């Protein structure tokens, strides 16, 4: 982190690589769970494990589009549009590629600059880009914990999804 509390572009890219690593681990263990358990409503914020994973993707995609255009997509991703793990994996792979391309083009100055986001005709908010991008990763962390808890109850624990575990395994 640079003086003044602004992240550098390479630090943001590292956070997103962690994000994709953790998402992949969840998808791998979810694939071992009984398919009907992935879609069963269990009182989670997003109703089911699949719904939670789709919600994580929807947030990543929506915020990326917002970062690139300043406006939110008109549609939401849902279990109706992404009905299973195969569709989720394909869409996540596509979006991760688009996010990596977006992040690769950012400079430290871009990351520290304010971006304006419109979520309606009369609703605008402005944040430094790095804060929005950290939010996306942090949001995913919260919901991955919910999905990991449910998967653990189904006998399919993803193990540690900690950032330091990612860094440790990456540095080997």
Overall description:
The protein has helices at residues 9-30, 35-39, 49-69, 85-104, 108-112, 129-153, 163-170, and strands at residues 114-120, 123-128. The mean pLDDT is 92. It has 7 helices and 2 strands; from the N terminus they run αααααββαα. Strands 1-2 form a two-stranded antiparallel sheet. It has one domain: dinb family like domain (Four Helix Bundle (Hemerythrin (Met), subunit A), Up-down Bundle), CATH 1.20.120.450. Helix 1 runs antiparallel to helix 4 (85-104) and helix 3 runs parallel beside helix 4. The chain is mainly alpha-helical and 172 residues long. The chain is globular and about 45 Å long.
In the predicted model, the low-confidence regions spanning at least 5 consecutive residues are none
Reported for the largest beta sheet, the result is: 2 strands, antiparallel
Secondary structure tally, helices: 7
- Helix and strand pattern: HHHHHEEHH
Oligomer class: single chain
The structural domain count equals 1
**Superfamily (CATH H level) name:** dinb family like domain
Which radius of gyration do the C-alpha atoms yield? 17 Å
Beta-strand fraction estimate: 5-15%
Q: Which topology does CATH recognise?
A: Four Helix Bundle (Hemerythrin (Met), subunit A)
Judging from the principal axes of the Cα atoms, what is the shape?
Answer: globular
Taking strands numbered 1, 2, ... along the chain, how are they ordered across the largest sheet? 1-2
The CATH C-level class name: Mainly Alpha
In the CATH classification, which architecture applies?
Answer: Up-down Bundle
Distance between the termini: 24 Å
Number of strands: 2
Helix proportion? 55-70%
Give the mean pLDDT.
92
